[in-house]
Request: fold
Amino acid sequence: QSQPSPARRPPPSLSSIEESQFLPSPSVDTSSWRFVLSNLSPRAKSVVPGWVSSLACLGLHPRVDSTVSHVLVSTEGGERLAVRTLKYLQAVASGLLVVSEQWVLECLRDSSSLGRALDWEVRDEELEGEEGPRRAREGRQGQEAALLQGYEVLVAGDLEGLARGAVEDLLARVGARAVTDLGSFSFSGGVTRLSLVDSQEAMEGREREVLQLLRAYKVATVEKDWLLDTICSHQVRPIAG
Reply:
């Protein structure tokens, strides 16, 4: 009689993988890799540092800068949808590779996955799966012009969840120039001038001020979500909306 086929074992969970199981692939050159971590699940936090150490790479880095090759984030389900954090925003604005932590799990199961990080590149959750991270990365690799080149932006008031310095950092990463007051705009041709506010609700009762900025100074007032959605989709969103 034929023997029954063995039961198929489920893939190991991150918590079940011991550090001794890290087997880097010799076919992939990881020497220039440097990782930033953002919003990882508790399981990933426990295993990723040891996995990174096994790669003979440049290790972990606390900031998103030009020396970083991969930004690892948590994602929802199998859709690779990433929640927005400041490091995620900085990574997409900079055109870096943003990868789901699930890539690490697959690498631990099969070392040949190490060279296929693009298969786990994330998409933006708030834009229902927009592939802004991929477009931004490909734009950087193709040396495209900065997304908001020719834009000047005044950060008007406090923005919920984002410090002024963080907003100005994001603007610089996408090629925009942050200005400190109305008189700092260049008012030259070919420049799009914006005033960035927290939300439409924050401008209730100030409609006259908004219209004055637009009519007298050609400065359009937009919500912060205009900037965040522009970055995360890697497409300039319509200002009129």
